[in-house]
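Predict the 3D structure for this chain.
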Amino acid sequence: MGGVWVVGEVDAAGALTKLSGEAATAARALGEAGSLDVRGVIVAAEPDGAAASLATFLPVVLTVRSPEALEQTAAAVIAARVAALVGAATEPPSYVVVGATPDGRDLAGALSALLEVGVLVGATGLAWGNAAEGVPAGPRVEMQPFGGRIVTTSAFTGDRGIILLRSNMVVAEPLAAPGRVEAGAAVEGLDVAPVRVVERIVAQSTGPSIDGARVIVSGGRGVGGPEGFAGLGELAGLLGGAVGATRAAVDAGWVDYAIQIGQTGKTVKPAVYLAFGVSGAIQHKVGMQTAETIVAVNRDPDAPIGEFADLFVVADLAAVVPALAAALRARAG
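Done. Predicted structure below.
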């Protein structure tokens, strides 16, 4: 049986994404359980920095320098390059682990077609099947379909496949000593889908990202509009945290999709999650339920979020948010 490869994702600044470290950690645990070789792959115009970062999590990282990744859709270019590496490998991987970002999902789809293997999407946990316990050897992939209403465990019918891991499901843990970085074999004349990048827009943000924030101040439909989110932004700043939102708030145009939390947004795992005007629908819950402490403020005493919040305050957020902000300013000054 072949090993496990992790395809690392590079952000707009050329750095390795946080989720790639998590994917590498999950793949390493999978490899240890199944006695499989685990290595990473970085395909980018300038892969060296991201590869060095990925090597802090994996024993071997292959790099492919691919300038066309800047001009064409990254997923198509990376999929073609990774597929070529797999085809040229003495021992091609049995399993490929990718972070479930928008680009990661595109990559998995293209790679699935090129390698003719299946994909298990939205993994929330990985384990190795134990034949001694009557479970076929191979990855056992935990998922939470239907908005997190149920938890399932799935496996590949064969001994090959691609796994898309959701963010914040694993704590990234570096190796005791960094691994080595090697140049992957260059393959020319690859057939890459002719989809070109005509413009790049990088969202500007202040303060921490919701992906790694220890405190998230989140708002839902009950916030009432952009003005309400301005108040949440001030509160988040006083707490050294980030602002999050439900899909309803994003769909209303009050805030950007980049801070949407839930089934169709991001999965977060802060130490404290403050939810204002958030009903707690299952689609949102699946993105924030792993927070260490959940504090919710809602005028509706029957709001679903009250069933799983650690502290549920029935009050008008229009009064609570300014009062909290004033208390924090007084404490700081």
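DSSP finds nine helices and 14 strands in the chain.
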